[in-house]
Amino acid sequence: MTTLTLVRGDITRQSVDAIVNAANSSLLGGGGVDGAVHRRGGPAILAECRALRASRYGEGLPTGRAVATTAGELDARWVIHTVGPVWSAQEDRSGLLASCYRESLRVADELGARTVAFPAISTGIYGWPMDDGARIAVETVRDADTAVEEIRFVLFDERAYEAFAARMR
Ligand code: ADP
């Protein structure tokens, strides 16, 4: 049984087995969630990301995929880095956004993580409309076949929280 929970807060302050990072394909850090993860988590995470780039993802981590590192100084065991799609009005990229949630949970299952915290992937710098981002997030994790016991959405502001709350009702 998987429980979905919703909190308003900062994803880098969650005590969970794994937090999901809204990364970019370079794996070398950026703004938003990514910046906060590396700032608070310290240099160990970036060092592992660099090693992943050198070994497996020389061309970058593809959009919709996920990969784990340890969590440095965060109160979590792992960071699962996933690359959301940039919003496009011309092209339907919702499959890629759903894939971020699904692949992150698959990686969480491989790790044996029982509690996983997600941000609202792609809804910041990548411009995805919040209501639609919330719909895809909630529908995808609800349908996922996973051993994760708690999936926690961590929303940064009231608007995001309300969008997710409306989808969970
Ligand atoms: P993306 O590039 O995938 O759009 P962002 O990190 O820019 O990723 O934003 C994703 C969402 O996470 C946005 O809704 C943003 O407001 C929110 N956000 C930014 N910082 C944090 C944080 N520290 N904890 C939780 N959510 C955050």
**CATH T-level fold name:** Leucine Aminopeptidase, subunit E, domain 1
Largest sheet: 6 strands, mixed
Based on DSSP secondary structure assignment, what is the total number of beta strands? 6
CATH superfamily: Leucine Aminopeptidase, subunit E, domain 1
* Span between termini: 18 Å
CATH class: Alpha Beta
What structural category characterises the helix and strand content? alpha/beta
Named once each, the bound ligands are: adenosine-5'-diphosphate
Question: What is the total number of structural domains?
Answer: 1
Sequence stretches where pLDDT stays below 50 over 5 or more residues: none
Multimerization state: single chain
The CATH architecture can be named as 3-Layer(aba) Sandwich
Widest sheet, order of strands: 1-6-5-2-4-3
Strand content: 15-25%
Organism: Streptomyces glaucus
Protein name: O-acetyl-ADP-ribose deacetylase
Overall description:
With 169 residues, this protein is of the alpha/beta class. It has a single domain, classed as 3-Layer(aba) Sandwich (Leucine Aminopeptidase, subunit E, domain 1), CATH 3.40.220.10. The protein has five helices and six strands, in the order E-E-H-H-E-E-H-E-H-E-H. A six-stranded mixed beta sheet has the order 1-6-5-2-4-3, with helices on both faces. Helix 4 crosses helix 5. The radius of gyration is 14 Å and the shape is globular. It binds adenosine-5'-diphosphate. Residues 10-12, 22, 31-34, 36, 84, 119-126, 154, 156, 160 line the site of adenosine-5'-diphosphate.
